[in-house]
Amino acid sequence: MSAYSLTKTQFRESLWEGLVTAEVKGALPPEIVVTLQDKAVAGVEVHDTGDEGRWLLRVPVPPEAVGDGVQTFLILDGSSDEVLESFTLIAGEALGDDIRAEVDLLRAELDMLKRAFRRHCVETA
User: Fold this and answer.
1) Strand order in the sheet with 39-40
2) What is the residue extent of each domain of the chain?
3) Cα(3)–Cα(76) distance, rounded to whole angstroms?
4) Alpha-carbon span 14 to 71, nearest angstrom
5) pLDDT of 57-101, one tens digit each?
6) H runs (alpha helix) in 1-125
7) Count of C-beta atoms within a 10 Å radius of residue 33
8) Hey, how many other C-beta atoms are within 10 angstroms of the C-beta on 46?
9) What is the CA radius of gyration of the chain?
10) CB-based contacts of 99: which residues, under 8 Å, 6+ apart?
11) What is the CATH number of domain 4-91?
């Protein structure tokens, strides 16, 4: 079991950020390793927050990770090789079959039907 936990705080402008928290008091800064397709991601930063046992993790999304398909990043505790968190980018044709894309399409169609029904109600009243 890892001596750390990780909570995502935000993901914007190609930068994933999270808060690493030590599970035990007096823990040393974590050794964080982020992988994409079994290769280490460059530019990963761990910054001290000023609070004991808490660090800010910044993971830059490399340009080669943005494209068609599914890209999964694994964030590991380097000392135990345990996965602390993961995040996924989905783009292009792979997204077409994704359930979230289908739900978004259904919502758009439902909104269209609601407008048509309301218009029908106004015209027949």
Assistant:
1) 39-40, 32-36, 69-77, 82-91
2) 4-91, 92-125
3) 12
4) 13
5) 999 999 999 988 889 999 999 988 899 999 999 887 766 667 777
6) 93-96, 99-124
7) 16
8) 13
9) 21
10) none
11) 2.60.40.1130
